[in-house]
Amino acid sequence: MADGPIATTATAKRPFRIRTITAFVTLRPDDFDEVEDDGVTTDVTIKVDRCADILRGVEAELRNLGYDVQTARIATNPFGEWLIGGGGGCNVDDDDDAGRTTRRKKHARMNDAGTNDDAMTSIEIRRRLLLLDGLLDEREINFCSLGPSTDPELTARACSTIVSTSGRFSCSANVEPGDVIAARAAAACMKEISTLDGGGHVDGGLGNFRFCSSTRVAGAVPFFPGARAPHACDRVSFAIGLENGGYARLLLEEAGNIGGIKRVFDERMSRELMPVQEACSRFADGRDDSVAYLGIDTSLNPSLDDGGSVADAIECLEEVRGDFGGTGSMAAAAAITTSLQSIPGILTTGYCGLMLPVLEDKRLAELGMAVRPRDGLTIERLLCISSVCGVGVDTVPIPGDVSEDSLSSLILDVAALAGRWNKPLSCRVFPVPGGAVGEMTSFDSPYMCNSRIFGL
Predict the structure, then answer these.
(1) Which residues pair with 241 in a beta bridge?
(2) CB count, 10 Å around CB of 345?
(3) Where are the alpha helices (DSSP H) in 286-354?
(4) What is the 3-state secondary structure (H, E, C) of 377-424?
(5) CA 138 → CA 83, 134, 147, 167, distances in Å?
(6) What's the pTM?
(7) Mind telling me which SUPFAM superfamilies this protein's record contains (predicted)?
């Protein structure tokens, strides 16, 4: 999910990187109408400009303090609130005079053109996506989450289109516990995305890097693809996500055992995160009330650097017997997560858990390559550990011919855990076209390594 590290002399002074500064903004259907005399500028232009200004300002503050800032991102409210509906103006649910007038004009245009509703909607979706993509490109913002689909029909109708339109776009599908219809829609979408063939950002199943199912994922999560704006308002807010696998190893080596985790995390993380918090708060306080700082997602998040594996760091603890995933791993994950959620003096947001993305953590990828599956990492083990730590089943390669039934059952398992323990969890898996269990993946991505395909 991150850009490659940027080497600077100042970076060595800081024990972790800033993986993302994520700005959250609320969009509406009429934001895409022309609003200025130039016939070009729209409200969405103005909103993207505001986000870009805030992101660059916060980035400058953090770089001045010696932090390596990898990405600046934007996340919107659920895309069903602005991408579909109100074509050319207001949301289709608006009942005021302006909304009714806009709908009459829209239907008149459709009737004149002899075009049905579905075709017209598809045209409007693509127009809005391309407009937004162009604005992001001009401002050099390469990551934008369009929030979750909150309806299975919307998942089927739009998510694959969003992912295929641009490598900048991410989205998700909300699946409530026990919602079989929503799980099946998300599974079908994952399968469809795996077959896309339209450029490097989707080829070979890579498009599923930017799509997941999500359950209990609230607003203000800075990490993708589950990120979305926290509430509908005109205020732009922002949050920070970290990349800290190497730092995790230092902390856990110092702790030595599960009993020492809270003390070390409370002391060390509080001290190291405070400059980030102070810089972000200072920036927000220097603006008017239209900007809000929401906090730091303190999650342990790996990198592909040597020594950047979170799983490898956890293996340093006395109680973890053998490889990560074996006995002691769940107890360690639970202790780490409890500590991450209550760092003294730090305003937190997002997952604040233990991130275990198989293809973004070299040790996890290595464990996935065990000759005998029972000796290595499995989806079942990842699910089990997710019950105490979050963030779910993440970047796991699975066979390309996996059935939608099997995939939807996995999604339902993740949703059940999230619902039972009231915690944010997601499911992001990669059906590999033509790939079978045990075969190696061959993804060509700066954000991932390769491993063997897991069974499901």
Answers:
(1) 20, 297
(2) 10
(3) 310-314, 329-340
(4) CCHHHHHHHHHHHCCEEEEEEEECCCCHHHHHHHHHHHHHHHHHHCCC
(5) 20, 6, 22, 15
(6) 0.90
(7) PFL-like glycyl radical enzymes
